[in-house]
Amino acid sequence: MGFSISQSLLLTIPPYAFTFIWLFITGWVSDTYKTRGPVIIFNCLLEIMGVVMIGWSPTNASKYTGVFFCCASASANVPLALAYQANNIRGQWKRALSSATIVIWGALGGIAGSLVFRPQDAPKYHPGLYAALTAASLTIINTTGLMIYFKWANAKADKGEMVLEESEEFRYTI
Fold it and tell me: How far apart are CA 147 and CA 93, in angstroms?
């Protein structure tokens, strides 16, 4: 985008200030409506929009706007994903293993990010942007699959045809 190092550092403040606010908004919405999956998918769609703006917008202003969408949506999905698994898994050890798995995948994503956003791809970084688009798309597909399964399993449990997580009262959070 052509900014100096000090300008670039200063320009990171507004997107992360917005991210701070967005975390509370998405947390409040998902808690109020007792739903996680649709909020995660919405954030992924915002992330995709942000990545496209960063990678293919003609102006720095629109690219910078894309940074807001990417930072806020990707960051908000971390606590949402942890809450989603915590809501849908019973048992201390299963929940602990699930949380650790999510954190490990996040760390692997950080490693992958350092490999796909390569210096030789500057200034466009298309391989990294394609990887980000792929990750967000896979999250949408996986979350949609979970939501479909959870709705199906909840319907079966409501009819008394299935016991979820070894408890007749338990229902999955969509």
Answer: 23
Q: In CATH, what number does 5-156 get?
A: 1.20.1250.20
Q: Contact 63/3 with Cβ under 8 angstroms? A: no
> 3-class SS at 164?
strand
For 23-37, the pLDDT digits (tens) are 999 999 999 999 999
What is the model's pTM? Answer: 0.93
Exposure of 67 in the CB half-sphere (CA atoms within 13 A): 15
Domain boundaries, the chain: 5-156
Tell me how far apart the terminal alpha carbons of the chain are, to the nearest angstrom. Answer: 40
Q: Which of 57, 70, 83, 72 is nearest to 131 (CA)?
A: 70
Residue 27 to residue 144: CA distance in whole angstroms: 19
Residue type, 60: N
Beta bridge partners of 167: 164
* 116 Cβ contact partners less than 8 Å away, ≥ 6 residues apart: 127, 128, 131
CA distance readout (Å), 22 to 26, 64, 120: 6, 17, 33
